[in-house]
């Protein structure tokens, strides 16, 4: 008998080579899943390992990042095409199926190429049986475009349908709906904005660089920022020299709000109580240097403390101390300005870190809130009367924002909440959940969903 001829979609079992761009994306997905890595940090290494540049590098980047971002949507589609639970599908095979689904439904890859290259990848990395399974499943996926699948699987506006259509866990959809409050009708727009990769934003550190020397479009609200039109930010001379850095405009506004808030009397000792990885500390140190003040960074973890020291080095940095922010090494009432950018769920930065939506749970928020309250209590302890304390989170979740601030005000009657909006550039439609607070939004402001509250000790 003659050898079996390859079935349609199988290709030549002996000579087909795995496409390096797809292999790089496959490896990134595995590292994200197994090692809790972040795609944006893993991709440069994967691209270099496979020698990918130019269009191939861009393809691999979109394939990996887009697959992670739209994982919830693709899982719903795949579940409709598989006669068993996705939990029973081997994880490597499921990674490949998600990559294939993104090519078919989210990228302009011809159907034959998307299926054939995915089948080849699975054959090389798993086995022939799994390759045949992927071939059959992806042919079902390709029977409809994404709009048709969503019309079938998520036709409504309830939590479940929005979770599928916009690839967010249902509990995150509910938290964001609550955070929007009276503007909950904007929820689909917010969820859609979370799935749009943000442009890279640079910040010129005052006294060290000017915005005019940075390439890109000036940011709407920060006087020091530009949005890059493309290219590698590390190739910008000011960034390579440490005079500028990569920083979301919302994070720039956090530092600017603290620096612009008036203090009574002395204004020399500034502290960033949770300084890692150092972006806000670097901007604050530059602002402090212009006024003859100095910033001390506090960071619990050694490797993050080193990042702060590197990012914020230069005039205006008094030093970086590796310490627990809930037991700050400062005397009572000894600090003039404090930034507390508290550890949080990160649900305000899902554009930038799409993996966070799949890693976090409602339980994580419940566990973070006591830490946030403890850090804010310590910040209040070391803040001097008349000084300024800015509490910020990269999360709009009410328990992490209004809940923490309200509890602190109830516990510490000598602390009052002031209007931080007076100390920011004009940012429209940014009223926070408490009077005088600010809540930024990706769909309104093009920034991460930063929350800002200004506190002062009487």
Automatic annotation (TrEMBL):
Residues involved in S-adenosyl-L-methionine binding: 274-280, 299, 324, 341
Cited SUPFAM superfamilies: NusB-like, S-adenosyl-L-methionine-dependent methyltransferases
Annotated protein name in UniProt: rRNA cytosine-C5-methyltransferase
Family from the record: Belongs to the class I-like SAM-binding methyltransferase superfamily. RsmB/NOP family.
Active site residues per record: 394
Alphabetical keyword list: Methyltransferase, RNA-binding, S-adenosyl-L-methionine, Transferase
Residues in coiled coil: none
UniProt xrefs under Pfam families: Methyltr_RsmB-F, NusB
Gene3D superfamilies from the UniProt entry: NusB-like (1.10.940.10), Vaccinia Virus protein VP39 (3.40.50.150)
Annotated PANTHER family: NOP2 YEAST -RELATED NOL1/NOP2/FMU SUN DOMAIN-CONTAINING (PTHR22807), RIBOSOMAL RNA SMALL SUBUNIT METHYLTRANSFERASE B-RELATED (PTHR22807:SF53)
The SAM-dependent MTase RsmB/NOP-type domain, residue ranges: 176-458
PROSITE patterns given in the database record: NOL1_NOP2_SUN, SAM_MT_RSMB_NOP
InterPro entries associated with the record: MeTrfase_RsmB-F_NOP2_cat, MeTrfase_RsmB-F_NOP2_dom, NusB-like_sf, NusB_RsmB_TIM44, RCMT, RsmB/NOL1/NOP2-like_CS, SAM-dependent_MTases_sf
